[in-house]
TrEMBL record:
The keyword Lyase does not apply. PROSITE patterns: ABC_TM1. The keyword Cell membrane applies. The chain crosses the membrane at residues 31-54, 89-110, 122-141, 148-166, 186-205, 212-232, 244-265. This is ABC transporter permease. InterPro entries: MetI-like, MetI-like_sf. Keywords: Cell membrane, Membrane, Transmembrane, Transmembrane helix, Transport. It is a multi-pass membrane protein.
Length: 279
């Protein structure tokens, strides 16, 4: 019997089967790939130190780092430094969140404000935080106020810029439809502009949550009594290499946890949008 172009051949069927991953691999392939990548990273890390390519005075092995991390949590030398850093980062992030969204909505709602604010945004969003550390120290000293202010500064700009773009980028068709149906300015803002802008604001919020701890470590290196940045710096000065990398490990794990929390919040807040786009 002749084979038409519309009928797949056995060879084509086999190729499709090869290209399509199995149900188990489709479900767990991402986690399996991540585990393999992490294992490869740890192996290379261990080999670099074990072969003497880098001295253990400068780079601790993964097992020594993990041991110092666990010991630091158990004896309190590391665990006591975590909460002060988390508290500073949380306070600074919440202040930046409130200020960034509020000002972003105001500026994004009016074209004239966007025009006036654009050169300021371009300047400050590209200004290095490290260049401003002395300014914060001069005005606020090396106490809690300067550390929180540095976190606020680092978190504010991603939130503010995304909020301005999100509010200003709401489709005019939605606004015109609401006005045509008789919706007032306040109703349109609450029920049309905000829901449409929230999904575009969240990337800035997630970036700000990551910036909070990055900026905090830089701020804690300026001075202070407690904090992960201070713990890392003190360990480096004392040549306690495993403890230094244990502090870095703690900071990285906190970042992973914060990212997971923000992803979960974003997933719940914006799930209505996925419902619309998946139909």
């Amino acid at each position: 019997m002749a084979i038409t172009l519309d009928e797949p051949t056995d060879v084509e069927d086999r190729d499709d089967d090869l290209d399509t991953p199995g149900p188990w691999l489709a479900k767990y392939g991402r986690f399996l790939g991540g585990a393999i990548g992490l294992a490869g990273f740890l192996l290379v890390w261990w080999l670099v130190v074990a072969t003497g390519y880098v001295s253990d005075m400068y780079l601790a092995t993964p097992q020594d780092t993990f041991r110092a991390f666990v010991d630091g949590l158990l004896d309190g030398t590391l665990s006591s430094e975590i909460w002060p850093s988390v508290q500073r980062a949380l306070i600074g992030f919440l202040i930046a969140l409130a200020a960034g969204i509020s000002l972003g909505i105001v500026v994004g709602s009016f074209t004239v404000f966007q025009t006036l604010a654009e050169p300021v945004l371009v300047f400050f969003r590209n200004l290095s935080l490290l260049a401003l550390l002395p300014v914060f120290v001069v005005f606020l000293g090396i106490g809690e106020e300067s550390k929180i202010a540095i976190v606020v500064w680092a978190c504010f700009w991603p939130i503010f810029v995304n909020a301005v773009g999100a509010v200003g980028g709401v489709e005019r068709q939605l606004l015109n439809s609401a006005r045509a149906l008789g919706a007032g300015r306040w109703y349109t803002f609450v029920h049309v502009i905000l829901p449409a802008a929230i999904p575009a604001i969240f990337p800035g919020i997630r970036l700000a949550s990551a910036n909070a701890f990055t900026a905090l470590v830089a701020a804690e290196l300026v001075g202070g009594a407690q904090g992960i940045g201070i713990y890392i710096n003190n360990a480096a000065l004392r040549y306690q290499t495993p403890q230094m990398y244990a502090g870095i490990l703690a900071l990285g794990l906190i970042g992973v946890l914060v990212n997971a929390v923000m992803t979960g919040i974003e997933w719940r807040v914006t799930r209505w949008q996925r419902g619309l786009t998946n139909r």
